[in-house]
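Milestone M4 deliverable, item 7.
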Amino acid sequence: METTRQRRREVVLRRLRVGDLRLEPSHPESVAIRMGTFDDDPGIRPSVRQFVTYAAAWESIPDDGLPRFPESRHAPGARPL
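Output delivered:
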């Protein structure tokens, strides 16, 4: 049975198709998309915050309870801060 998360992932991937080009994630359990790509609400929310080490000093990271990773969460030995 397909989960809601799987259905949302398929919707996002369908929206990313451009001609014959289909963007596939390098990690099948997640899809990384810059939110500026969307014209309206995609109906999904972030599950982690990555690369927080590189956040601009003037841009605060919300205290939303999401796990924060200094770099990619897929990096070898990656652990949330």
